[in-house]
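Translate sequence into structure tokens.
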Amino acid sequence: MKFVVLITLILLPISGIAQEAKQDSLKRVNGDEVTVSAERTYSAASDAEFRAADFSLRPRNSAQDMLRIVPGLFIAQHAGGGKAEQIFLRGFDCDHGTDINISVDDAPVNMVSHGHGQGYADLHFVIPETIERVDVAKGPYFARFGDLATAGAVVFNTYDKLQENIVKIETGTAQYSPEIKDRAFSTVRALALVQAPFSNENFNMYFGAEAYSTNGYFDLPQDFKRLNFIAKATGNIGEDGKLSASLLGFNSSWNANGQIPLRAVNEGRISRFGSIDSTEGGNTYRTSAIVKYTTGGLDPFTVTTSLTKYNFQLWSDFTFFAVDSTHGDEIEQTDSRTIFSARGEQLKTWFAGDAIMKTRIGANIRNDNIDVGLYHDTARMRLSTTVDAHVIQSQIGPYAEQEIIFPAIQIQAGLRIDYFNFNVTNYLDPGAEPNGSVQKILASPKLTVAVPIGDRITLFGNSGFGFHSNDARAVVTAHNDSTIPRAFGAEFGTRIGKISDLVSGSVSAWRLDLESEYVWNGDDGTTTSLGRTRRQGLDFELRIAPLNWLAFGGDMTISKGWLRDAPVGQNYIPLAPNLTMTANVLTHFNNFSAALRVRMIDDRPANEDNSIVAKGYTVFDLSTSYRINQIEIFANVENLFNVAWNEAQFDTDARLRGEAGITSDLHFTAGTPRSLRIGLGYRF
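Result follows.
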């Protein structure tokens, strides 16, 4: 079966797109003009560009779904629609963002020292239709990206000016069982993006709002509600300068069925869409103000500042009655913070003989002021306090890159130096750990070499050091230097540019070593280290466009990871994917567009000895759109063949009510059954 799926996916058309050697302004599809640009002409072969067709035809439940356009990246939701998704990339279970750096308009999305997990990246505050460009850089090779950029980095950029005003209404339902037939078309999404009437060629402003509501497909009604807003103004200053200011935010609340034990389903206690603790769920809000100024021109100076106010409250129950056989093991995690960030960069282009020299000097500053808590609850009522702490985490990260461009070779050398100050005050017990201050300094050199062969082929070699920071509470408690795990990565590859505008692609072989899988476990307020790890693999990307109305494309990542200090057979990295593939076919003619996609992830170990296996899946999605003048009619079908699949999976020690002891078992969240979304849009 796996061989059939493998052959099918290779022959099927394709979704991840090979990167071109220069920036590519992409064609408008159904009114959405999307540009996804390369890092630079000499960046890694695994960097990516995406076409407007692939982007605009995707179902847009949230900006989090837009992460799926990154080749090799998979997401999984396991606590209702309001929680940040779990992310998988290049053999990493990045949790909610521990090993992937995500930003929007140069403002950080990841939350360091978060109440639920290090690097928690919740993109739900962004309205997906406002995304103009997505930049992708895999590996720790680029000096611009610092903390958390080990597996890679993703940068979302919103429109400065809308292409069109948009009004949309969508509704949908999921095929599951007669028990939830009363929820038919209980999913509703409404969107409005409108240009200010006083906009002109020198000043532009637009406003947007999105409302989303669903009861979901689980036995427990999800009662998920989310409200988003955006306001953005952009003005020209001087000949090339530009100043923009934006305000983005959202508020959401939800119930969750959580992660359920496989044995509870097999024993008939619950259905695979059931729940053990019906009081799981959460609420969160975020508001971010972003100001960006650039001088433009050949030697631009750019500076971005952002201020974010954020609040998070999550109720989860992973072990049920393993700890408290009377009240249950429900936990409540809270996080309330203010984030200030700034980033500045100066580019200077000059010449040395026949060489083009590009010098980049920049720095980013970030300060998080956080109140974080962990509580033992029952039915969302607090019983006791496990963690009550105040964290101030500050970072300063200057960097420099020197690019040397000859006709026959291009070289980029970079250096990044990061200074951290971790400060923790333990409100629960002022005399006990975690408490105190720690400072850390890290230097991260980078090197990239690119050799063009003719006009179509480029060979790449990349290497560099990176890191992901740890939770401040873990850093001030530990008494060693491994609390901020260093990463070293290298890769070699080639990129083939468009051949007669028909075929393009890339292949790269990579390796990434991590000093320690040492992260803060927000679920129980402890730290965990699995020791040194190594991941290595191959990335493939391909695009075929035989006709101007038809395109095929896809990507595949084959990887292997292991714990370097553990014996063979006990050295599997839990949940590290070994094989991921996506593929699609896109068609666009006259006013009709359609996309058929498939995403596949193979079985993977759920624990260190592979005694419990997280099951793989293959899911097909179909999107269609038809436009009549200013009116657009669209329909999206997720899980076209109604496959029973597990979205999130974990090896968990838990005890159900009535069980004599604790059992280690696969816990999972069921993936969506076949679901239909239909909608109507008006563009003017």
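Note: Residues 1-42, 47-53 have pLDDT under 50 and may be disordered.
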